[in-house]
Amino acid sequence: MVWTPDFLTYQLSDDHPLNPVRLDLTMRLATELGVLEGITTHAPEIADDTELTRVHTPSYLTAVKSAPVVPFGVGHGLGTEDNPIFLEMHEASASIAGGSLRAAQLIAEGRADRAVNIAGGLHHAMRDRAAGFCVYNDCAIAIAWLLEHGYERVAYIDVDVHHGDGVQAAFYDDPRVMTVSVHQHPLTLWPGTGWPGEYGSGDGAGYSVNVPLPPGTGDAGWLRAFNAVVPSVLAAFRPQVLVTQCGADTHAEDPLANLELSVDGHRAIYGRLRELAETTAGGKWLVLGGGGYALFRVVPRSWTHLLAIVLDRDIKPERPVPADWLAHAATLTRQPLPSGMTDGQDPSFEPWGGTPDRVDTAIIDIRRAVLPLHGLDPDDPRD
Question: What is the pTM of this model?
């Protein structure tokens, strides 16, 4: 596990939705539940310009570094409502990028099969601009580092409610990287991209996979769509390492989106990602955080389940939330806090190919767009 309290300095503003309190509460909850007992944490170094320019332009780095000093006219998507300028913006952003790089290095060096940077997952940042609360794209930076250090096939799965547009853009024509994003439909949510027809270009055709889901999709529909598409394309691609962005903003209580998943559904998703890492990527799994704006009731529980699953210390859903954690969280919010690690939902689903479901249009569209490019039959549920 990669962690430093410095990750908590990535705070875009006092009232910004991306509040680092969610990270602090996650670490406190995981600690109190014993998930991190005996686990060595690795502090990252701040990513240097050489690491960052694998993905970003030098002019963009200059803008990020100078913005807090010259806050007007810097451009590059900085100084907006989504991406306000804040003190030590470069250092805080490069620290998170360094965390994801450290996680990649631990796997590449054979020191771990799985590594997690819960502060990572800033998947919207583009080559020369900030976007969607993201200054540096740590996901793409870690993937680019893996490619430069001997990896020839890297799969990236993004389960955030928003399309993983920045990572897709970074590798859109690169057949060494398969990007998979399961997200709310682009007609109904920013950034308005992530259509099934965005399947890559040139040599990268077939290696961008997008599964857009209608608003209101819950656990069963999400898992039905995921399992109808993702295992097939991963098995065909045969990645050497699986990188996952595990945003928790698909939850029904998230204030910025409109899917209807539960913490129980999140737990099922993380378990499925672990299975796919084992069966398709030789057990190599690099895990990143992402979005999630239900800061007190959802993200800490969801990501504590994630950490537990990464560490093979799965928490039973009926486990109560520790009293000390509740007491601390109650000093930070007036919201009612959950008493258990479950929302009381059953995330079971009916596989695609049976009774029709409202998500089947998305399933059929992406299967027909991408599966034939990998020699698979889009109309055969066995593929």
Answer: 0.98
